[in-house]
TrEMBL record:
It comes from the Eukaryota. InterPro entries: AB_hydrolase_4_sf, AB_hydrolase_fold. GO terms for molecular function: acetylesterase activity; monoacylglycerol lipase activity. This is AB hydrolase-1 domain-containing protein. Belongs to the AB hydrolase superfamily. AB hydrolase 4 family. PANTHER family: ABHYDROLASE DOMAIN-CONTAINING PROTEIN (PTHR10794), ALPHA_BETA HYDROLASE 1, ISOFORM A (PTHR10794:SF63). GO terms for biological process: medium-chain fatty acid biosynthetic process; medium-chain fatty acid catabolic process. SUPFAM superfamilies: alpha/beta-Hydrolases. It comes from Guillardia theta (strain CCMP2712) (Cryptophyte).
Amino acid sequence: MKARTLQEDHEEFIRAIKEFAVPSAPAKSHAPRKEADSQVILQELRRLRLQQLLAVLHVTWVVFRPIVLLGVLGESFPARAPGSRGKENAAGSSVSSEVMTNHLVAAESCLDVFLVYISLLGDDGSFPEISFNTCGVFGKRMKSIMDLCSFEHFRYSPTFWLLNGDMHTMLPVLVRPMKSPTSDFLRVRLKLSEDSDQPLDIAIPSKAAASTVKSSKLLLLILAGVGGDSRQAYISDLCKRAAEEGHLCAVIVSKGFLSDEVDSVKRIFSPCDFDSLEKTVNITCKSAQSASLKVMSVGFSMGAIMWLTYHGKKKSPENMIGCISVGSAMKMDFSMVGRYPRIIQPALVTELVSDIMAKYGHEILRLVGKEPEGQDGVKKFCRSRTFADLHKNLLSKIGKSDEQNLWFWMEKQEPHRWRNKISIPTLIFNAKDDPMHVMEQCGFEKETPSNPNVAYFLTQAGGHIGW
C-alpha cells in the first residue's frame, strides 16, 4: 500500500470533521448598548491597560532582579588599596547598620542564583529524573515505550546565563512576543449540542511539508495554558515542527477568549467543563479515524492539568493512544499561595479581564450591575488580580462555577484523585525549578508510580515550559 502524504491525510481529516461543524460562527447578539455604559467600559479598559503595563514591569523586575542584585553586591564591597586596612578602622565604625542589613538581604537573595549557576556548570547525573512502573502488562508496555524513546541518554543543557526558573519561564516571553505564529490554521466550530459548540483550530502544513513529508498517521490534539490558543508562539511552533515530522495538529481553543468570541459571557470556556471536552475529543477522534489516524493528547500548564483529569475521569476513544502533559500539577494549591498569585497571576488575569470587558462589557454591566453592590461589582471585577478574584467577582456569578466555594471549584480540576484511573500511556514532563507549578505539586513518584500507565520525566532546569 502506497504511503500517504501529509497533505492527503490533512484533507481527509478536514472533510470528515466538517461534517460535525456548524455552518458558521454564531451571531454575536450581545446585550443592548447604552452610551453611558460605553463610557464606563472605555474608562475601565484604560485602567486595565495601565494595570497590564505595571504587571509586566513587575514581572520584568523579577526576571532581572538576580542580575541587578549581583551588580549591587559587587559595588557594595569595593576592593581595598594595599596598606589601607589601618586607615579604615575609624571609617569602619561609622558604617551604619542599615547598610549592613542591605548587604545581607542582597546576599541572601543572590545565594540561590549562585547555587543554580554552579549546578549548571557541571554534568549533573541526576537529570533528567525518570520514573515509571514496569510491573504487569501495562508496566511492560510503558517500559517498551520509554526504551524506544531512549530518554536515559537525554541531557538538557540550558542557556548558561538563565540563572533560575524565573528567567527560563519569563525571559523568552518578554523577548519574543507570545503571539508570533509560525503556522496557519483553519478554524471550525464543532457542534456539541443544540446550544453548545467548540472552536477547534486545525494546523495547515506548509506547502513544502504537505507535499513531500509522508504522514505519520498521528494527530496531536493540543490544549494550551490559561487563556491560550493557536496564536501562542509555543503552540504555533509545536504545530510547525510536528508537520515537519509528518504529524497533524488540532488545537482546542478556549471558547470566548482572545481570538474567539461568543454571543454571551455565560458561554465562555470553563476549566471544569469535562463533558464538553469529552464531546470534542469524541468528534475529533471519530474524524481522525476516517483517515486512519491515531490521536495523542498534548497539554501545556492548565491544558496539561485538564488532560490528566480528563483521562482519569473519562474513557478515551480507542484510537487515542497516549498523552503528554507538559508543566502540569496534580493539585491546585499552587494557584493560591506563593509566587504564582503574587507575581504571575496579575499579568495573566488582567489580560483575561481586559479581553472579557472589551467583548462582553455591556453584558457584564447588566449582569454584575444588578448585584447589591451595583457599579462597585463591575469595578471589583475589573480590579481582579488572581484566579481567586476572577472566580469571586465573575465566574461564580455567571454560572461557570456550580460551587460558590473556591476550593470546591478548584478540586473539580485536580488530577490527583484520578491519577490511578488513567488508562492510556501518559508522560508527565516537568522541570524541577518550575516557579509556578512547583516540584511538590507535580505529583512526582520517585520510586514506583502507583499507575503503570503514568511515567515522569523531570529536568533539572527549564522553568515553566521554558526549555
